[in-house]
Amino acid sequence: MDVAIIDYYANHGESFLHKAKALWKMVFTALVIASIILTNEFYILLGIYIILVTIAVWTRLPVSKIITIATYPAIFALIFAFVIWNGSWLRAGVILLKALAAALTMVLLIVTTPYPDVFNTLRPFLPRIIAEGLFVTYRSVFILLELTDELIKGLKVRGGITRRKYLRNIRNFSSGIGLLLVKGFDYSEKFYGMMNVRGYGGRIAVQDKNMHMNRYDFLAITIGLLIFAITISTVIEKSFLEFGVYILVCSAVALVISSLYTQFVN
Amino acid sequence: MSHLHIPDGVLPGWLVMSGWLLTALILAFSIYRTRSTELKRKIPLIGIISALMIVCMTIPIAPIAYHINLSVIAGIILGPALAFISIFIVDLIIAMFGHGGITVVGLNTVVVGAEAFIGFYLFQLFMAIIGRDSIMWSSGLAAVISLILSTSILIGIVYSSQINPELVIGIEGNDPTEQVKNEEIPQELINGVNIKSFAKTILILLGIGWLLEGIITAFVIKYVSRVRPDLILPQRA
Lengths: 266, 237
Description:
The complex is a heterodimer.
Chain A: H1 3-11, H2 16-19, H3 22-38, H4 42-58, H5 63-69, H6 72-83, H7 89-112, H8 115-122, H9 128-157, H10 166-197, H11 215-236, H12 244-264
Chain B: H1 13-33, H2 39-57, H3 71-78, H4 80-96, H5 105-130, H6 135-160, H7 165-172, H8 185-190, H9 195-227
Helix pairs in contact in B: 1-4, 1-5, 2-4, 3-4, 3-5, 4-5, 5-6, 6-9
């Protein structure tokens, strides 16, 4: 979960998804997640996953990095699939694909949308303390990551973490976390002072953007609606599942064409 | 680490919605409870504790991507109300990174929030019984016991995911059209997840984790109590 890399991708991309507004991307995300929840068909889920990978290719970000970040939940999905094993590989595959596809959907949102935009979109639906807490937490993560990096280097250089001395390593590592906590608390007090000096009145200001839909928003919504429509139609009318393999093939073809296009065309 | 890593679309809708409803109620109560404290001062502290929890979740300790939660430490430092708010923020942010389903954030917050809540009160209890000199043992034991209890809640959630609520209402209700017979209940309830297998797997995987997190919590609280004893809350419900 490399927070710094994700934040860099979100702020330095030029794809259609980067140019779409946070609200419409979140609607796209909601439509895709709803599709993943509603269906239990292996081919449909695989098709959705391949479409999401295709979109990841369109973002022109390192696809392998994005897929790796989104593969973390697969470990736990595999454990869960193991405990509900009833001899069906398809069932295990469905659980795995639900985890992978849902994670990739969220990661696509977060690697193409700066965090202030995401939190600002959620702000009307959350209590003030939580909305403000989100901003402050995200800002604090980067500061703590830097402190953690220095701490781990310091521990290694000064022999605080050595091989085979497990209890000593745990004790030193724990003291390091304690140090982060104490430094973090001191920082939070200074942060409060800084916010007051800068006129903080209980609400962190974020630049409001024009909420009119542009073509990029329209494209994101269209793709989301298409995925949702295909999924819901196969849920309502089971006979449409016959076309599941065709959907899969079309997704795979789209992925190949997109990969070739982004590889050879700037 | 009793964080629910179950993906979206696996748990039934009624269970997921119950998690969100319960989280919303507890959040409302927590915000009401803390209304008298200076919230603008507390927001940076919630932010730091939440950020510390997120940073620690990015540090895998064991090959199976085990990570520590620091939820009990959050409970001890912030108190149960603010800790619950902090945990909700953490679960929301990490769900955006694909770490656990976005739809199960409600259930996750309930499970991890229970850790902070139980950990806080157990810490106060052990401090009262054992004494302030054994702050390390009090915090370590509180962490281990709260993790065991929150893992039990997690197993309970997975177990209840197999229960059809209509079936349960039918069993307890007096509707004469209800066709479920009492002798059919065990088969209906155990259909799906092999709960014994799930519980065994979870207990084996997390058992070492409880001990590890208990030890880490003990050393962290010991360090903080020496450097900044004012951060460890006095006895307060």
